[in-house]
Amino acid sequence: MWGITDRRHFGKHVAGFGAMALSADSFISALKAQTPVLKKKNKSLIVIHFGGGYPAIDFWEDKNGAPTMGETKAAKTAADGVRINELLPKIGSQMKNAAIIRTLKSTEGDHMRGTKVMMTGLPINVLVEQPHVGSKVAWYYRENEGDLPAFISVGGGGGVGPGFLGQRYGALPISRPGSPPENATPPKEIGGATREGTDRMMRRGDLFSRLEAGFQKSTGSERDAAKSHQEVYDKALSLVVSKNKDVFALDKDVDGKPIKLMQEYAVGGDFGRGCLLARKLTEAGAACVEVNNGGWDMHANIFASLRTRLPAVDAGIGTLLKDLAERGRLQDTVVVTLSEFGRTIRVNPGGGRDHNPGLWSVMVAGGNIVGGQVYGKTSSDATSIEENPVTTGDLFATIYAALGFEKDAQIRDSLGRPSPLAGEKAKPIAQLLKTA
After folding, report:
1. 280 with 263: CB under 8 angstroms?
2. Cα distances (angstroms) measured from residue 203 to each of 8, 20, 88, 167, 233
3. Looking at the predicted structure, is the pLDDT value of residue 337 above 60?
4. pTM score of the predicted model
5. What is the pLDDT of residue 213?
6. In this predicted structure, what is the pLDDT of residue 424?
7. What is the Cα–Cα distance from 250 to 239, expressed in whole angstroms?
8. Which of 205, 227, 267, 301 is spaced 20 to 30 A from 196 at the CA atom?
């Protein structure tokens, strides 16, 4: 919905408008008329983003005894024939609902470039700034958008924005799970979180809308900057007056009841709470939530770090999958683990793994995904692909298919050129998807 600059800009402008004798009710009604409730048929996406290039081989590979595995040991899971790291038992207990793609081949080994490729699903194009996958999902559901921001990023981000789609489809950042978005409450000097404060905020918003309207008439273009600016502010104000802003708190569930698995999520610290928030937000209508877990640039002492960090990862993702399944939400929510690249199969002299986009793995679950399986086969020492290589485009085509998107869905870039969401040559992996 908006980046940090837009969010701060919003707060300054709203606080700066003079109190006007205008109707707050009419402005609130206009905002709500623009934001119908998200239809239940729409699925949501949760992206677990491991910033820094996570060692996928130490998460999802099962080659016990191979010299390339170092100290990592794999264990059985709830899915027959599927083994993952023994430090991920909770995720293992949910593997009947998840699939592992073990033969992913991406293209970039640089952090910044790799992040752009793996957060957009497309090659870097110097002429076109590609949108984050969350922005694309928000755009795809644009006709059914509710008053909750469609795309929300929790715990930081990878620096990839909405690209040519504009700030209307950018992520609302939540720095710490459980804390409300910044500027989501009227300033204290105009009444704060009271009826009076909301009324005064809306009167100022009405004035702002009138002032902006003149600029928009100059072009009439859908990509007009003034129009996009107005949309960002309208969406921000809609959140301020919405009861949905309470969903960002972690003191109670969406239905107002105590959160059943709160303690299990809490084992994962802020990451675990971020996964809980993602479940709440998608259940409340968000189209995509990105949960960030950074610091995986492990060039040294990797195995000691894994023993320390994987229990939190296990608590977050494992509890998330369990919670979605128990609440009947898994078929409506796709969960995927992404990073800018994987790590080298062989351990370096410093006891770490270096950058490796040529062979790595992701986990995907929910939606139309058929769980309990592994796609792709690697050699006995995990150093090469033997069967079913998967491109970045294929991965993202599979994600979009798991969400139930139309197979021929296209998007137009800033130059007006149409293209499939996942790129021209991308094909979803049929083995991983439920048939109609």
Report:
1. no
2. 19, 6, 52, 24, 13
3. yes
4. 0.84
5. 58
6. 92
7. 18
8. 227
CATH number 3.40.720.10 given to 43-178+250-432: yes
Residue 201 has what pLDDT?
57
**Segment 126-164, tens digit of pLDDT:** 889 999 999 999 999 998 877 788 999 999 877 899 999
Q: Where are the domains of the chain?
A: 1-34+185-248, 43-178+250-432
Q: Is the per-residue pLDDT at 415 higher than 90?
A: no
Residue 55 backbone dihedrals phi, psi, to 5 degrees: -80, 80
The residue type of 141 is Y
Residue showing tokens 């990023």: 153
Within 10 Å of residue 58's Cβ, how many Cβ atoms?
A: 27
Pick from 314, 373, 338, 312: nearest CA to 97? 373
- As given in the structure block, the two tokens for residue 249 are 């708190």
